[in-house]
User: What shape does this take?
Amino acid sequence: MRFLFLFLVLGFFTLIYTSCDGKKGNQPQSNNKLVDSSTMLLEKYPDSVELINQTANSALQMGDTGTSIQLLSQSLGLKLDQPEVENQLGFLLAAIKSEQSLLIATRMTHSDKALDAAKGHYIKGLFYANTGNDKEAIRSFDSSIITNFTFTDAYIEKAISLYHTGEINKAIDALSKAMDLDSKNPDVYYWLGLCLEEKKEMDNAAAYYQETLRLAPDHQAAITSLNNLKK
Assistant: This one.
């Protein structure tokens, strides 16, 4: 599964309960109050880009992806030159398989900044991957890598699409390059584990799942994969 994609499409952040007596913590109430306060302020200052962006992030934390998308779109309507907001909106739209993400991505690819342009190609790749067109996704991720060869996420997502198309050795090569750039990214090791499992190298696959869990002990997919190998 594409962890980042699922995280964004659902828009969920875990609600932590930490009170000593076992009662629910006040995190949900705090988030609700923050959203309510921001919404009230927006009624008073509807053209405040900073406030709109803050409210959009709060909505996303509460799992309201739709409202976040609406607010981010409103923010860009007021001030177009916001690369991070544009990137976040494009990412969310790609996550829900909206073709509007391609419009934003195309604009981003014309940026003078290599990383912003790379993110534009990357968003295109995510849209195609999420809509089942892995071959087109691979081409977009390649364009992202060419634009900025240090963009680790593009290598990982390319590898995932290669895995889905059965090109396991190419996926391993992309993941190896991602590892060179970010040796502490747990998803790199997880997908290497899956690739090696496909190659029937079970001991090596288990070692990569274990490394995933060393870096991210709560990585549920790695836990499941490792448990399945032990059966």
Summary: The domain at 3-11+25-182 is CATH 1.25.40.10 (Serine Threonine Protein Phosphatase 5, Tetratricopeptide repeat). Confidence is low (pLDDT under 50) at residues 3-26. The first helix runs from residue 3 to 10. The chain is about 75% helix and 0% strand.
